[in-house]
Structure formats: structure tokens, C-alpha cells
Specification:
The chain is built from 10 helices and 4 strands; from the N terminus they run ααααααααβαββαβ. A hairpin with a 6-residue loop joins strand 2 and strand 3. The two termini are 43 Å apart. Strands 2-3-1-4 form a 4-stranded antiparallel sheet, with helices on one face. By secondary structure, it is α+β, with helices and mostly antiparallel strands. The mean pLDDT is 85.
């Protein structure tokens, strides 16, 4: 029970902080400079410009039908988290718009900082297994109907539509171009926070306690491990070799886990240029 409470508190804390950062990105940098950075937040920015609708309220209205449709299809746990985050983001956007300062000096700087902050805020939300709704939910629903389509392509097409519409509504090609900068920077920041730079370490561990170590790594680090049967060339003894790829900052934790089961392991740690796959860099199918 205590673990569930701790996890819940972390979810609330990190998602809340991510929502605050995202609200700053919109109210300080993107909305005052008439930049619609794709997705439902971009649509809400456009509607705010045309009819002065509150951005936060508009986000809730746009997301409501998707939440109803996806309630059974995407799982109750995921949707409950997403509803909570969406409402929190929307409320924070409208409340903070009354006191956050607007930056109007350099639109290039506004797009860069808006992209960094929005990417950081969304990444923190994604880390806790939720989303802020919008095109992420739409893409998941569309993949259920058309599984051959990649989420990246669906989100890219929706962002392209919003960016094109913003250029027309704002009557400014620059607004559309700055929006593209925000989308690019935000996506890079999200990838960096979620998956790192793609670089990491590969550990090869020679031990007699392979299964125990593999189980602990899988449980505590949520990393995959391969076990290979080997034979010592000098001693002729049968041993096991564990192969595991981790991020740079996980090497210390992995070493501690290994030494819990083998006080004198023989380990080889090598640098890896890029790691592709679940938990690292992801490559959307075309």
C-alpha cells in the first residue's frame, strides 16, 4: 500500500510540475507571439485569437469527446491519468495567464524557449504514463482503426494542418515558420528527457548467479537482460554471461544490483554509440 501511495504522490508531483512548465511555455512565449505550436493547444491558440476563448477551457472542450470515445479502448487507468492531467494543464493555463509576464521582444527567442519549456513539461507528464490529451489520444485511437499508420505520421499530419491554419488566421507566414521551430525543438527535448541522447553502456557480466541477477535487473531497473551459456577457456568451468544495455546514469545502480548476488563479478563495461528499442530511442515505422 505504501508503494502505491508513493507512486501516486510522485505522479501528482511530477505531472503537476510538468503542467506548470507547459503553462509557462504557452502563456509567456507562444500565445503572446501568435504562434500556434500544433496539436490541440495550437487550435486553442487560434480560437483564442479569433473569438478570445480562454485557451484552457477550449482545451477541455476539445478533449472531452476523445476522452469519452477512448474510455474503454485505451484503458481506464490511462484515461483517468490523462483526464486529470488535461484538466490540470487547462486550469493552470487559464489561471496563470492572469499574472505570467508575456515575452514580446524576439519571436525567434520566444519560439526556442517555448519549444524547450513545452517539451520539458510534456516529457515529465509522459514519464509518469499519462499525456495531456489532444493529438496523442487521437493518434492512439486512429491506430486502433488503422494499425498500419504510425503515431509519428498521424501527429505530424495534424500538426501540419494546425500550423497551416495558423498562418492563414494570423495572416503571417512567420507565425507558421516559428511554430515549426517550436514543434521541432519540443520533440527533441521530449526525446532527450525520455530516452537520453541515445548513447549508453553495454555490460557483459560473467557470473554463476545469472538468473537471480537478471530477475533483479528486470524488476528494479525495468531493463531487458540476455543470458548466454559460456565455458571458461582456462578453467573449463561452465558459467553464464549476462548482456544488458543501459543508460549512462544507470550503470551505478546496475553494479549495485549485481554485487548483491555476486561479490566478485567479472564485468566488462563498453561505450555504445546509440541504443534503439523500447526504453531508449524509438524509430516510428514509415
Amino acid at each position: 500500500m505504501s508503494k502505491k501511495i508513493t507512486t501516486f504522490c510522485l505522479d501528482v508531483l511530477i505531472c503537476g510540475l510538468g503542467a506548470c512548465i507547459y503553462a509557462v511555455a504557452l502563456n509567456t512565449f507562444t500565445i503572446p507571439n501568435q504562434i500556434a505550436p500544433g496539436g490541440f493547444s495550437g487550435i486553442a491558440t487560434i480560437l483564442n485569437f479569433i473569438w478570445d476563448f480562454p485557451v484552457g477551457v477550449t482545451l477541455i472542450v476539445l478533449n472531452a469527446p476523445l476522452m469519452v470515445i477512448s474510455w474503454r479502448r485505451l484503458g481506464m487507468r490511462f484515461i483517468v491519468k490523462t483526464i486529470a492531467v488535461t484538466v490540470a494543464v487547462s486550469v493552470l493555463i487559464d489561471i496563470s495567464s492572469t499574472f505570467l509576464p508575456a515575452y514580446n521582444d524576439d519571436r525567434l527567442l520566444a519560439s526556442l524557449f517555448g519549444g524547450v519549456l513545452s517539451g520539458a513539461g510534456l516529457a515529465m507528464i509522459f514519464l509518469r504514463g499519462a499525456t495531456s490529451g489532444g493529438t496523442d489520444i487521437l493518434a492512439k485511437l486512429m491506430r486502433i482503426r488503422w494499425p498500419h499508420m504510425s503515431m509519428g505520421r498521424i501527429i505530424m499530419l495534424s500538426d501540419l494542418f494546425v500550423v497551416s491554419a495558423s498562418g492563414i488566421v494570423f495572416k503571417s507566414l512567420e507565425s507558421a515558420l516559428y511554430a515549426i521551430i517550436i514543434i521541432f525543438v519540443s520533440s527533441r527535448v521530449i526525446d532527450y528527457v525520455l530516452y537520453g541522447t541515445g548513447r549508453g553502456k553495454m555490460l557483459m557480466v560473467f557470473t554463476d548467479n545469472a538468473q537471480e541477477i537478471a530477475n533483479a535487473i528486470t524488476k528494479d531497473l525495468t531493463r531487458g537482460v540476455s543470458i548466454v551459456d559460456i565455458k571458461g577457456g582456462y578453467t573449463g568451468k561452465h558459467k553464464y554471461m549476462l548482456i544488458c544495455a543501459v543508460r549512462n546514469n544507470e550503470v551505478s545502480s546496475l553494479s549495485k544490483i549485481i554485487k548483491q548476488f555476486d561479490e566478485q563479478p567479472f564485468m566488462i563495461v563498453s561505450e555504445v554509440g546509440e541504443i534503439w528499442g523500447q526504453g531508449f530511442l524509438q524509430e516510428e515505422s514509415i
